[in-house]
Specification:
Type Iii Antifreeze Protein Isoform Hplc 12, 3 domains, six-stranded antiparallel β-sheet, two-stranded antiparallel sheet, 4 helices, elongated, disordered N terminus
Amino acid sequence: MNRDRMLLGLGLALVVALVASRYVYVQLREAQTMARVGKPMKLTQVVVAAGPLKMGQPLGADDLKLVDWPEGKQPKGTFSRREDCVGRALIVPVAENEAILEQRLASREAGSGLAVVIPLGMRAVSVGVDDVVAVAGFVTPGTLVDVLVTGAGPGGPVTRTFLEHIRVLAVGQQLQADSSGKPQTAPVVTLLVTPEEAQRLTLATAEGRIHLALRNAVDTANANLSPAQGAALFQGAATLPVARKIAAKAGRRAPPPPPYKVQVIQGDKVETQAFPR
């Protein structure tokens, strides 16, 4: 009796093992099939640029196209209809096939052109330049410059750096640098400044002469330079007060050093003689 029960239990265990093995086998086959074929992916459509688009450019229907994009994987702020983008201007340049994002578009009320790329609270000020002032044309949109002003000071001409880390918005009417890196020449350069800097820059162009100093885009350190004085420039590195002190010291003679004293013995005579140093 016990033997029959044991055989019955063994048979049930064997059946359960066979069923479990079959289930694992089927699951492995399905997993292998899905890996080879690939699970069908749900797609949605996203608006992208049909070609390279410039900053400040208002978008038209021909500037945009729809492409398939994995559903749930599209960047935040994308559009699924072209008409939602048409008529709005870009605040940054966009490459071909790049997704159009909400944060890269100006509002419909902002218009187009230079105005849409000016951040809130900032101002765009244009200054007249030549090839020398504009660093031989290498001051291009997007570069950073320092602004130097030269004018008449109390003791002669003075040059000082009064604005640092200023972004160039436009050269002439160009809002983008040349893609090949070529210099851009124009009689006017537009700078992005705060309202206070706009006042100082306007005064500097009216009362003195300005120059632009091109700087590395990753160089964010402030130079904190002292003004360059015209009088000191031609007298060496010393400023006028220091130069006067040096001249005053040179006019006073120091007392001579004490003489050497030597004892001279001649027979029974001993004499002390002094010799100048």
